Amino acid sequence: MTKTNKKFPYSSQIVSNVCVHCSSGSHFGLFVCDSFLELPIKEKWDGVKKYKLCFNCLKKNKTHHISKCRAGVCKFCSKLHNSILCSKNPNNSKISNDNKTFIDNTVSDIHTEDSTISSNNAAVPAAQAVLLPTAIVYVKDINGAFQKCRVLIDSASQGSFVRKSCVNLLQLKPTSVNINVDGLSSRNVGRVSGLVQLEITTLFCKNTSITVDALILPKIPCDLPQFQVDASALNAFKNLQLADINCLQPSSIDILLGADVFGEIMLNRHLNVPGHSLTATETIFGWVVLGKTKLSCQRIISNHASYNTVEFQLDKFWQLEELSETKPFTNEEIAGENHFKITYTRDSTGRFAVKFPFRDSSDELGSSRDIAMHRLQQIERRFRKNQSLSDQYHKFMDDYLKLGHMELIPEKEIDLPASSSFYLTHHPVANKNGDKFRVVFDGSAKSSSGISLNDELMVGPQLQTDLITLLLRFRVHKIAITAHIEKMYRQITLHDSDFQRIVWRNSPFEPIQDFRLTRIAYGTASAPYLAIKCLQQLALNESNNFPLASKAALKDFYVDDLMSGANSLSEALELQNQLTQMLSSAGLVLRKWASNCNELLNSIDSGMRLSTTSLNIDNDDTVKTLGILWHPASDVFYFKITPLSFEGTLTKRTLLSTIAKTFDPLGWLSPITIQYKTIMEKLWKQQLQWDERVPTDIKLEWEQLANDVQFVKDIKIPRFLLVDSDNQFHLFGFSDASEKAYAATIYCRSVSDTGKINVQLIIAKTRVAPLKPVSLPRLELYSTIVLSWIGSHASQWKTFVANRVAKIQTLSSATQWHHISGSANPADLATRGVSSSTLLTSIWLCGPKFLHETFPFQTDSSVPSLNDAVPEERYCTLQSIIVPNHLPDDHSNILRVGGRLRHANLAYGHKHPILLPKRHILTDLIIRHYHKILLHAGTQLVQSCIQEHYWIIGARDVIRHLIRKCVKCCKVKASITNPIMSDSPSSRISPAPAFMRCGVDYAGPFQIKIIKDRKIPYNMSIILIISNIWQHTTDENKRSHETSQLKA
């Protein structure tokens, strides 16, 4: 398991490949190890057994068994072993070393603003690349706007293709197709999900355009070019108008234009420069460059890449949003605690000394010095390019050596078994501003056995105090005190110093020397646990001598940062004195003292005080989009703002990275940050890839938020919650929900002896509503319905409601809950989201108006009863009726029918009649009124007249039902006479040979195709039938009355 560095997110995860046979870092695996390949077959088999490798894939895995290996079989005998172990392999009798490709393993750390890329790379001596013709173009989206896309012009492709994410960005509607696309050697590229028509124009002239029918692929796999190209390659074409000015920079391809439009794109002019391998060709998009060129560096084939910073930041962001719960220790954590108790010691000066808590033993560790050597050489290459980095690095290492935190290993102790020592790689880490620098020692680097030091160490339980709890406690002290333990990790001695060896030299011209770190190194898995445990153990050991300091050390430290306080000056002075003495007894020094009390600061040496005027609450060295600072002089919290604007393409990665840097653990800016969360939810719904551009609507929404966040700097929140330390106070909680989010807030109301009332926001938490729709009463948990739930036994409700009601009833009583209007509910702001300028003047920071009034409040404490005949499942909203029917807006808030007559020259009431329900007393009265004024007309006439002003749902049925009940209509309604059928003619009932007599059916059958949307053909058919019957009946007028009766 990889332990992610929580304090410096730029720590890297390294995967090294070192040969298990010769311990060389110049190659990886037995497949390319010359010394292993030259061994006889028997020694090869013995070696595989010795190194505990799989005989088939030659890889090390504790749970791997040859019978489950998926590597295939021997290509010489088809048995289940590797080909290099086969006796039929001709190379086992004659080893050929011809045409070997030299591969140099290097490990690189690429530090960017948003992520740390840790790669295990192979540098191949090939120094040439091939450029393919690319261009930047405009593509018209569904709204007629132009979006920039990157295209590849490929004459070898039989069709054109577009990425699905690009189609989503353009919001175009594809035509359904379902075909497979094959590449070279019939390799399946992917299944096409649709066909879309693209209108592509040039950047320079939008009048020049082509229309392309492109098949939609999930992705167009590779970035082009595949590696960085020397910028001097374009010097010969600097006077040309290039279609892609960044054609030398690796970037993704949105559209592939194939041979179907190749002729429309290419023009006739070409430019070849003598002695230059590149060619420029003119296209309608501009000039494209293609051909062979030099790389700006060696080609890098990445075997492993880890992008961990964005995920780490998102994980930390959601951790701050959760209220932590105490979890029981696991068996391994209990073992780590027991190991510390029996192994820790204190020397004569009181300094703690500890041992590494290995899981089992360190027997599986392999050789690690070679990878450390290669890492040092790589860092030295960076020194040659960055003198400032070199100076800082050497100063840090010199300081380490002078303080005795590392020592040179005697020559006789260097050659220890691999299981008894481990070499840590090291690399620099600095924040963006460059004002903080440190060297991190990487315990996750793999040894030759594929096992790292961190793999073998127990991490230990999480002992540090929850940050939210610490901040809440920090706000109740009248006098606040903060400080920082100087170099906390490096004040604790490590007995197992041979597991913290490093290689180092002051100059590339000096020999490499072996050192070992004698103190806990930042970057090992168990270092945080050991450091915090030593501090807590010190507090327990010294609880009798320093009671105040002991209590503060156990509860008021966040790793190495103190956030404590007292309610009087004398108590604060005593606490500061005890903390200084107790920690110094263990070799720990407290610096950067800060307080809102000048008398306390005057008692502390100026060199030990905080040099800045503000304290950053989060000890993370990354640059925060939104961070909290405490200003001791004014004793208020305020917010540090970083501009949210972006240069270049706004992708899912850059957007989520910015959101994740928001640091608001107590939710003071929840009405603002809830809008960030809803954007995150929208991005997940879109199912975009990490580096895909976000849709236009989300981009516009984000830009609006970015412009508004500037007003957050004006928000000030007092640190001290109470009017005075001994005042009475009450806590008030509010909750609310909307279809977008739900929220809860808690306020503290304190009253002084003189009657002064102080109301402060303590904490707020928000969550976006679930993706699966949930009814509003379920979300809200504040309405009168929920008050009834809380006042009843939880067992009578369904599981969803019962679980939450039971928890509410466990933590509180029903009489504590009340209903409040939305305008007086501060939680309502957090569910809707408001701008930062609105937040300053709202009830959010100081609570609703009634909290500032004297007790008792005028509230309704009665709990309403809930009628069992109205179950919660029957709940619906007006919006469920309005939205699908597109009902027009009405200034009188009357529901009207929509329809397509908006532009008709009719009265508004005729175009949009009032909507009436089918069963209502008003509907019955209107129908009876029209039936009466129309002189007891029938159903059709009554309905026609009513619909000039009203639209009744299911009108025909309800009108007919009421007319049948009309007494007058029943009295005067004439009875219908049924005609007597005549006798059948003899020709119809007398036996006769077949087809002797033929009849004509004047009524059909006529085959009619009914169109659902329009009934005109049906109506025309009726007219034709009537006309046909009339014609035939006219021809038969001379027939007898008896015959005509029969035919009719």
> Mean pLDDT score, rounded?
78
Spatial strand sequence of the major β-sheet:
4-5-11-6-10-9
Uncertain stretches: 1-16, 94-127, 297-309, 621-625, 869-875, 1015-1048
Strand content: 15-25%
Shape: extended
Number of helices: 31
How would you characterize the overall build of this protein?
With 1048 residues, the protein is α+β, with helices and mostly antiparallel strands. The protein has a 6-stranded mixed beta barrel with strand order 4-5-11-6-10-9. It has a 4-stranded antiparallel beta sheet with strand order 3-14-13-12. A 4-stranded antiparallel beta sheet has the order 25-26-21-27. The protein starts with 33 loop residues before the first helix and ends with a helix.
Name its key features.
4-stranded antiparallel β-sheet; 6-stranded mixed β-barrel; disordered C terminus; disordered N terminus; alpha+beta; 31 helices; 1048 residues
Please write out the topology.
Elements: H1 34-37, H2 41-50, E1 104-111, E2 116-124, E3 128-131, E4 134-140, E5 146-153, E6 160-163, H3 164-170, E7 180-182, E8 188-191, E9 195-201, E10 209-217, E11 255-257, H4 262-265, E12 266-272, E13 278-283, E14 286-294, E15 299-307, H5 309-321, H6 331-343, E16 345-346, E17 352-354, H7 369-385, H8 387-402, E18 406-408, E19 425-430, E20 437-442, H9 453-456, H10 467-474, E21 479-485, E22 493-494, E23 501-504, E24 513-517, H11 527-541, H12 547-555, E25 557-558, E26 561-566, H13 569-584, E27 590-595, H14 598-602, E28 615-616, E29 626-631, E30 636-641, H15 652-660, H16 670-686, H17 696-708, E31 717-718, E32 728-737, E33 741-751, E34 757-768, H18 776-780, H19 784-791, H20 799-811, H21 827-832, H22 836-840, H23 879-885, H24 908-911, E35 914-916, H25 921-933, H26 939-946, E36 950-952, H27 955-964, H28 967-972, H29 986-989, H30 1016-1035, H31 1041-1047
Helix pairs in contact: 5-15, 7-8, 11-12, 12-13, 16-17, 25-26, 25-27, 26-27
